[in-house]
Amino acid sequence: MSSYSEAEAQAYSGSLKVAENDAYVLVASRYNDFITRELIDGVTNGLKFYGASEKNIELVRVPGAMEIPLAAKWLAATGRYCAIICLGSVIRGATTHYEVVVNACSEGVARVGLESGVPTIFGVLTTENIEQAIERSEMTLGNKGHEFAATAIEMVALKRSI
Ligand code: INI
User: Fold this and answer.
1) Is 118 touching ligand 1 by the criterion CB < 6 Å?
2) Which of 11, 32, 123, 139 could covalently link to 87 via disulfide, CB atoms 3.0 to 4.6 Å apart?
């Protein structure tokens, strides 16, 4: 039994329906491309699964995770996209400045969403090692792309319902 009454309170939540003309854009880093290209496929398949058409899915590539927030900011400013899905892979074992890259990227992505009002999804894998990154991006197993796509669609619907 729920602890609140939906009859008394107006409840808002997003659905997983894609509106016909909604355009989604993916910003994906080329660093660790063997991971990010799987995430791109996972998100694209996820968006299509929920009804997005291919013509409404665009892709922008940037060198590394550090460059994602600025590109996302430019894209948000165009007003063309209902959501921006940021994709990257930062692997601790591969860098001595893991924290620097992860913090700058995650804070930057969050800031773009808060400042623009455009749902901006953090789909950057931050892992201890290559194996964990592969586990979260493999098409056959736990590709996180589907989850990132669903999150974007839900936030777009939630924004409209509020
Ligand atoms: N960029 C990543 O996307 N992932 C990483 O693991 C990474 N490492 O290991 O350093 C990384 N570095 C590059 C960084 O994102 C910028 O492209 C670079 O600092 C230039 O601004």
Assistant:
1) no
2) 123
Cβ of 31 below 6 Å from ligand 1:
yes
Amino acid at the residue 76: A
Tens digit of pLDDT per residue, the chain (162 long)? 556 676 677 777 778 889 999 999 999 999 999 999 999 999 999 999 999 999 999 999 999 999 999 999 999 999 999 999 999 999 997 567 899 999 999 999 999 999 999 999 999 999 999 999 999 999 877 899 999 999 999 999 999 999
The residue annotated as part of the active site, out of 97, 103, 110, 139, is 97
Closest protein CA for atom 19 of ligand 1: 66
Contact 156, 148 (CB under 8 A): no
Predicted structure pTM score:
0.93
Residue 97 annotated in active site: yes
- What three-state secondary structure class fits 127? strand
Q: How far is the CA of 108 from the centre of ligand 1 (A)?
A: 14
Distance CA 119, CA 75 (A): 12
